[in-house]
Amino acid sequence: MAKGFPSRAEDYSQWYNEIVSRADLAEHSAVRGCMVIKPYGFSIWEKMQAQLDKMFKETGHTNAYFPLFVPKSLFEAEEKNAEGFAKECAVVTHYRLKTDEDNPGKLKVDENAKLEEELVVRPTSEAIIWKTYKNWIQSYRDLPILVNQWANVVRWEMRTRLFLRTAEFLWQEGHTAHATKDEAVEETRMILDIYAKFAEEFMAMPVVKGLKSESEKFAGAEETYCIEALMQDGKALQAGTSHFLGQNFAKAFDVKFTSQEGKQEYVWASSWGVSTRLMGALIMTHSDDNGLVLPPKLAPYQVAMVPIYKGDEQRERVVSELQKIKEILEARGIRVKLDDRDTHKPGWKFAEYEFKGVPVRLAMGMRDIENGTIEVARRDTLEKKSFDLSDIGNKIEHMLENIQENLYNKAVDFREENTHIVDSYDEFKKVLEEKGGFIYAHWDGTAETEEKIQQETKATIRCIPFGKPEAGKCMVSGNPSARRVVFAKAY
Amino acid sequence: MAKGFPSRAEDYSQWYNEIVSRADLAEHSAVRGCMVIKPYGFSIWEKMQAQLDKMFKETGHTNAYFPLFVPKSLFEAEEKNAEGFAKECAVVTHYRLKTDEDNPGKLKVDENAKLEEELVVRPTSEAIIWKTYKNWIQSYRDLPILVNQWANVVRWEMRTRLFLRTAEFLWQEGHTAHATKDEAVEETRMILDIYAKFAEEFMAMPVVKGLKSESEKFAGAEETYCIEALMQDGKALQAGTSHFLGQNFAKAFDVKFTSQEGKQEYVWASSWGVSTRLMGALIMTHSDDNGLVLPPKLAPYQVAMVPIYKGDEQRERVVSELQKIKEILEARGIRVKLDDRDTHKPGWKFAEYEFKGVPVRLAMGMRDIENGTIEVARRDTLEKKSFDLSDIGNKIEHMLENIQENLYNKAVDFREENTHIVDSYDEFKKVLEEKGGFIYAHWDGTAETEEKIQQETKATIRCIPFGKPEAGKCMVSGNPSARRVVFAKAY
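YS: structure for the whole thing
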């Protein structure tokens, strides 16, 4: 175990912070609430981006780019959306600095360069995008518009945590326009499926799909769909949301189209996004008391190679053998790092790659060369074995697939063990207190009951899950309930 | 020729604007000086990004992400840099909006949410990055740091033009840290070579490599290297810059390292960037009086297919034949769009793909099917030919290579024709007035002469080109000059 590194049981929150910091994923910056995403962390995010981008494009979406700033008058247009984000907006009021005569070498805001209208740094882009779509849409022939944007957004947060909640974060935001309600709803649901598939197949993170309650939905949406994942401390994390916006933004920005029947109608909309928050979800789903654990599909390098030697002659020999194996692996598309640095000892390297979550570590020394073997260590199970070199490419490829699968299965098992069905409010509070996790319980569908539960227990409705309804009675009010909903404490 | 579309000779500036707008590349937004990059334009930028990113990674660089905001006190630290950008900084002063009681439904800045320290929206990231590097660098073992960032930046501009000069633009900015001056200079030059290679091999745009004069160099740099391209109106466009920063930022942020000899030394630095401005350069290098012309390597689709038919039966037959050819082309990695929409006529489609600069257009009708042929039109030469279908994949692949080459050669020829060597100031003024282009002339190396020339003629020194020096006398002062420099009017 890394020195001074707390176990999850000791201090979960500190355990998370230490992983983010020591595995070189991200750090706090000199700007309050904003993070620096370090190269190792960023290369995981790049893999997420590449895969999601591929999935969006395969389903007909294209990327575009809209301004960072939203003039206040546009921001206000959709009132619920504006109200929802007003309290966390960074606002640009001036466009120039000037020399501060009282402080040589210092600058101050030039009061003569005050903007006539303030600019909000986008917390989300519906307003600026719907203002733009107004000019793009005249007829049904211009629909659908299926556009995505990769961008930074800013939501001023008082309490921040790296990746999970930061004032500036990176995300993608899809914004689509449709001729019919059905088509927009279908898009919203299809994107949710993409998010769930990405979470499960690439992040190896099982998710529950469902609908947000009225109180939890996106400001300006008719319906918000979400995927919810369970972290190892029993808290839920909202990993992605897809919103059916109805005609709210079309009405706010007067976006109409001529239908095939020649009528003027308002356009239907969806918007959807996932962010660098997924990095936090990835870390907390798989990592253990030895550090970060990465699923092979998103690992910057899937295999780290460490040569064991004494002196230059042995070094050359071992490195050259490893180089050959590296080429074999790379020919299969495996990402390999051969660490032949002479400035660090093998033990240091072992600890480094273990802490950084590299799925497979290979080590080779003179004895291995004589025997035609190589030492193979798996990060997920920490198993170490000696492998015969024959067919090594195939073996490692299978091991990586197996690790990906194993991580997913472990996460599914964890979630099942921590999913509880309760029928009374007392039981609910007891389970929440003692075990945490996802709690399926009946709720009468009112905001009052939802709020009461939240205030008394800090648990929120994570989602109204898809699937068969099951009638019952609300655990709090005793009123009828059409289905169980998922409660949890959440990030 | 597209309706109402001016020729270059008629109105070059309007010609450019119309191409950007009608080819769906970008448009002005509701935010002063900020643009919307539309899907077709953005997909060209994505191709540029992907290629540059590959080249950076092949040379050992990794991506990371640093905050959008720079606290004023950090921004001030490197005085020349701060002075250079102070006049064009968007400044965030508040972090909350609130309900405007006097205007129902409207919001206003909450004066109680004033930041203690203003935040500058990054016009460039040296300050925030060097503040971060201070914590990353202790010893020579931590060097070099070779990091790049893809990001948006804001420089408040009073007169904006789509892609060429906008308040917000997208770019990449590399920021490297080195133990020695030589290594930092080598990095600066190596990146310039990458930029030149990218411009020539991918954008098919020849460039002159050189050094900026003292007055034109980046604020905070010791030396700025650049690539300069010549547009069709005889004006130069700076397409990329790579700065040797010396120890300026290391000193401003106190970034020292312990050398191999155990001494404390300041770190050496480079920074370098290209931006969405390259889109403007690409458009102006190749496009003609019929619209946009794209080099195949950066075209969103390289081949557009248009079926010619009467009635559903013919349509099905022709589309199915084209589908087969599409698969043949795609198997070779060619990007193909088969436009089988029934809502638009072939003539409309021909005009559309011509205006959007698609390198090759294929058209097929029943007669072609009978003859085993296809109509092939090249965008660069506007030639139209009937091709036998045998070996069609190979033929189209070669045609695309040929178009890429031809566009480059045409641009080289244009530049040669518009490059002039002059020896007197009178001749200089005459050539500048009558012909424009790159003018190679002797200059005495002083800022005074440089400024005099600029004020009298509007021409600037684009660069002090690499290559053999040639002694002579300054065309203005008559003082000795070590080499000719490149003058031009510029974007």
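YS: worth flagging: The domain at 12-286 of chain A is CATH 3.30.930.10 (BirA Bifunctional Protein; domain 2).
IM: good catch. Also The mean pLDDT of chain A is 97.
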